Design the sequence.
């Protein structure tokens, strides 16, 4: 019995020793970690007085689930519309003398893009010189013939010459008048042909210009000084980017829920918070066998040329399907340091800037992560809290300096 009691006491003492040893080797950084976590938590909290809240019109609501429209998500790139691209070729053979536009340049209607030495225009210029000289020669002949016809008429009136002589002189003058008209027509035809080349009648006719047919952007150029060109050479491609495509690859399983003219909401990183409205313009009939996707083209206006060619874009295509999810008004979500956050009330005067994962576009946004049902979120006046949060960050940075 005595040995049994001693054995139990030994076990108890050994257990206490192990506990003390474990506590002795426990990392001392636990307190630091707790402090760091508290610091991070405090860094994301902003204080706003009751009066400031009243002026900002803060409205707070508990997060609740609701019906959310299911959207098809895809990424794509900005592309020009085929029918809004023109490929500029010279109308004749020649040599490029000067190039005035490069890829990416914005150009206006009739702006000169290049000059080239037009061989055919030079030949036409020589023909014009010859035609003008011939016209001048016929006009001189006509002037002389007309004087003779007038003289014959005067003599005929006094009986000094027979009528036959007057009629011959008048006939010759009229024939020359017809020859003048024919030569003028020939000259006009050559000038019209020369005008098609954009050449000048007064200067060097062989120096021809290539002009932009409309306001747009140069998206391709194959012209360089010294190049020998002909009517098959594409010198420039100019695109009207006032309207563009966004082309995305959509998975096969989602194609059945997309139709022509269906609305699409597009966002790009360059303009955070701005939504561009588009419509489905085309759904390609060929699937990529590796990715099992098909190209979907969405057409949209491009005011101010904000959307650049090849820019990445995010597409949200609404469908008729719905599901239950946590939602907040779009006004509740703010962007801070490229993060999407909402402000969660932690106390009467304190609000936490909580990063959230947002889905969809519209009046209400689906929250897929970062919030729990029932948490109090600022749904109006969040922008004022954002301003206060940024001011606090700025003050903190100056304090560390």
Sequence:
């Amino acid at each position: 019995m005595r040995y049994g009691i001693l054995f139990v006491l030994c076990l108890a003492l050994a257990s206490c020793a192990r506990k003390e040893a474990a506590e002795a080797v426990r990392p001392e950084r636990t307190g630091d970690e707790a402090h760091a976590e508290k610091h991070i938590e405090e860094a994301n909290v902003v204080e706003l007085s009751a009066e400031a809240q009243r002026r900002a019109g803060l409205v707070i609501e508990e997060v609740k689930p609701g019906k959310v429209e299911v959207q098809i998500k895809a990424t794509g790139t900005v592309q020009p519309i085929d029918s809004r691209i023109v490929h500029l070729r010279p109308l004749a053979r020649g040599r490029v003398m000067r190039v005035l536009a490069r890829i990416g340049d914005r150009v206006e209607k009739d702006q000169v893009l290049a000059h080239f030495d037009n061989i055919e225009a030079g030949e036409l210029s020589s023909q014009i010189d010859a035609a003008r000289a011939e016209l001048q020669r016929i006009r001189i002949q006509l002037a002389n013939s007309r004087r003779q016809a007038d003289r014959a008429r005067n003599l005929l009136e006094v009986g000094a010459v027979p009528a036959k002589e007057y009629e011959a002189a008048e006939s010759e003058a009229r024939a020359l008048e017809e020859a003048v008209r024919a030569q003028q027509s020939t000259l006009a035809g050559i000038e019209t042909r020369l005008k098609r080349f954009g050449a000048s009648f007064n200067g060097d006719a062989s120096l021809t210009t290539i002009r932009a047919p409309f306001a747009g952007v140069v998206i391709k150029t194959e012209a360089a000084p010294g190049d020998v060109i002909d009517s098959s050479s594409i010198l420039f491609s100019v695109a009207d980017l006032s309207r563009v495509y966004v082309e995305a690859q959509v998975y096969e399983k989602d194609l059945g829920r997309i139709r022509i003219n269906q609305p699409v909401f597009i966002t790009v990183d360059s303009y955070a918070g701005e939504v561009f409205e588009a419509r489905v313009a085309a759904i390609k009939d060929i699937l990529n066998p590796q990715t099992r996707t098909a190209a979907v083209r969405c057409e949209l206006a491009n005011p101010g040329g904000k959307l650049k060619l090849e820019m990445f874009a995010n597409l949200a295509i609404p469908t008729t399907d719905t599901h239950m999810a946590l939602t907040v008004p779009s006004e509740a979500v703010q962007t801070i340091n490229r993060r999407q956050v909402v402000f969660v009330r932690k106390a009467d005067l304190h609000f936490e800037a909580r990063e959230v994962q947002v889905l969809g576009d519209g009046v209400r946004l689906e929250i897929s992560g970062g919030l729990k049902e029932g948490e109090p979120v600022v749904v109006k006046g969040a922008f004022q809290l954002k301003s206060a949060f940024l001011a606090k960050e700025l003050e903190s940075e100056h304090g560390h300096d």
